[in-house]
Amino acid sequence: MRIASLGSGSRGNATLVQHRDTTLLVDNGFSLKRFTERLQRFEIDPQNIDAVLLTHEHGDHSGGVHRLCASHDIPLWTAVGTARAALPPDFEYRRLVAGHSVTIGEIEVLPVTVPHDASEPLQFIFQQIDTGRRLGLLTDTGHITRHIVDAFDCLDGLLLEFNYDPEMLENGPYPEMLKQRVGGNHGHLSNHQSLDLLRRIDTGNLVCLIAAHISEKNNAPAIVDELIRQLDDVPEPVLASQDSGFDWITV
Ligand SMILES: [Zn+2]
Ligand SMILES: [Zn+2]
Predict the structure, then answer these.
(1) What's the CA-to-centroid distance between 226 and ligand 2, angstroms?
(2) For residue 86, is it within any domain?
């Protein structure tokens, strides 16, 4: 299985997960034109995307999903609450339910419920059907729940949000209400909350760790990199960038 990103952060997210002939796209916060441009470097044709999975309705994840699926006839999978909030009323989609895995081609997808200020937010764990290797995606999460620790234990690969440094958020340019939203229980994961998850799960099998959804205003890649390197038993991190995401990484 391998993973790549077309961009990661509050100005747009789109993540590819591929195993053999199956290609999945998680979210698309980019216009059709920009998405198509950004996809070129991964040598994938939009027609070859087998399914789009939508985590939640915020524009940085959902903004380009509907048009992409409609123009290339790609099946869209999402939760009922997200569909109601993000899609036109008559738009056809396949329903995801937290805790119930679905098989798409050669990948099994487990939707995991997370605390975030959206209707029915989900994050995902992908499992290769042939070998059982598992890759977790966790962004747009306000705090680490017991449920998340259990679900994300013993993974082979992990893409994890390192959204903000608490001090930078506090002293940064965001208006007070937005600071409270981001730092609140249903906002985003701080560097310390994400480190806490890494300490609580078994990382012994982890071959890749990607730090994602790093705020451009309230965080700095160098801070995230230094914090992660202090941990034992964790691979050298890859830092996802807003503008270029990251290239294929094999799990
Ligand atoms: Zn969000
Ligand atoms: Zn987001």
Answers:
(1) 23
(2) yes
